[in-house]
């Protein structure tokens, strides 16, 4: 049994699943649109929390929130379930597929059979859609893959019940109902406002624009506090979060610029094009930072690029993002 | 980033098995999608992460061959797990896993426990108890 489901590759798994699922119900929204409406753009450096022994830096909001916010703002009803029993989780999935409903789910990356070994770390918040079963194998639309993949019953069960930090526990979600006409414009405004507010006003040092400056301050002290090796490792981790699979380049900055550009047309606000261009320039600045950082942690130009200069680059970026979001926050429908 | 600047730095690790979607600006200033095979800064970052895993595994290998640590410690490392992750997969307390990482306690493990460990670590029980096998495992960025 196979549901007539269109697989489109996306930069990021959660946007991709949302975009593909909504597309199935006739709501055609691009990945940047989902990301913008769901207020996915963010920054945080959590120096109190370590994952795999390294500080967590993230360029987006928590897993699951983009989908939740985007569907809520578009008036779409979503059903969610999690399970204790793996077999029950698989059985419920089969029942939904029988009814012709494509199902989004959370899985762990480590045991995904079609992922190259080098990507397989214990990361448990990957999203994909299951849209059918053929010859005993499940048809998988994984947004970061170019083509449709398949998994056996055992393989799928294993990734759905991955263990470790934040185990997915077979979590799955599907669309219950969509409104007759989706009104995108107010949803876009809500998305923009939330992102601008989050980036500017959270009164803690590690979130939003403040978070970028916080990372810069800490980065200056890394070589002294952590030693050369640990510092290099932490820096490389920032680059992985910035560029590795799923950000569309420069830690979602380019996706957001694409969203602003698309919104300029939909909202009939040509001024947003200017902000989109500035966001693109900021993305390029992040990539410039990544390029220098890579030279630094590889120690290829010791002395020239130091943690100090990298931190200054970050502060420059923070200033530009702050100006941009202050302007964005002034926008009124 | 402009369309013509999309990096195609073939990662020695991934060899084009996965191509990333990037959002780029075309010559008219419009956003569009492009596929990238990789970019050297992120390839380097990933290489560094794996080099560290292999470096630590190398140190553990010596201690296993010395009879101090158990093979579980070695396979845990090359499966990029830590005690917490392994404990949750095994459904045993972390302090027990920590015990089983030493050769002394590893020798006392029941066949049942060995089979469970082997399954979680993606090897057979016979491979798990074969200490000499650890000597032969080579680390490469290719396979």
Descriptive report:
The complex is a heterodimer of chains A (333) and B (143). Chain A is α+β, with helices and mostly antiparallel strands. Helices cover 50% and strands 16% of the residues of chain A. Chain A contains ten helices and eight strands. In chain A, the strands form two sheets. In chain A, strands 3-8-4-5-6-7 form a six-stranded antiparallel β-sheet, sandwiched between helices. A two-stranded antiparallel sheet of chain A has the order 1-2. In chain A, helix 2 packs across helix 3, helix 2 crosses helix 8 and helix 7 packs across helix 10. Chain A is globular. In chain A, 49% of the residues are buried. By secondary structure, chain B is mainly alpha-helical. Chain B has two domains: 36 residues, no CATH class; 87 residues, 434 Repressor (Amino-terminal Domain) (Orthogonal Bundle). Chain B is built from eight helices and two strands. In chain B, strands 1-2 form a two-stranded antiparallel sheet. In chain B, a hairpin with a 5-residue loop joins strand 1 and strand 2. In chain B, helix 1 packs antiparallel against helix 2 and helix 3 packs across helix 4. At the A-B interface, helix 7, helix 8 and helix 9 of A face strand 1, strand 2, helix 1 and helix 3 of B.
CATH topology of the largest domain in chain B: 434 Repressor (Amino-terminal Domain)
Give the radius of gyration of chain A: 21 Å
Please list the strands of the largest sheet of chain B in the order they lie side by side. Answer: 1-2
Give the total of domains of chain A. Answer: 2
Q: Would you list the SSEs of chain B in sequence order as H and E?
A: EEHHHHHHHH
Oligomer: heterodimer
Our count of helices of chain A gives 10
Strand content of chain B: 5-15%
Biggest sheet features of chain B? 2 strands, antiparallel
Helix content of chain A: 40-55%
Q: What do the pLDDT scores of chain B average to?
A: 86
- Overall geometry of chain B comes to elongated
Strand segment tally of chain A? 8
- DSSP summary: helix tally of chain B: 8
Residue ranges of chain B: pLDDT <50 for 5 or more in a row?
Answer: none
Rg of chain B, Cα atoms, Å: 21 Å
Architecture per CATH nomenclature, i.e. the level-2 architecture of the largest domain in chain B = Orthogonal Bundle
Largest sheet of chain A: 6 strands, antiparallel
State the domain count of chain B: 2
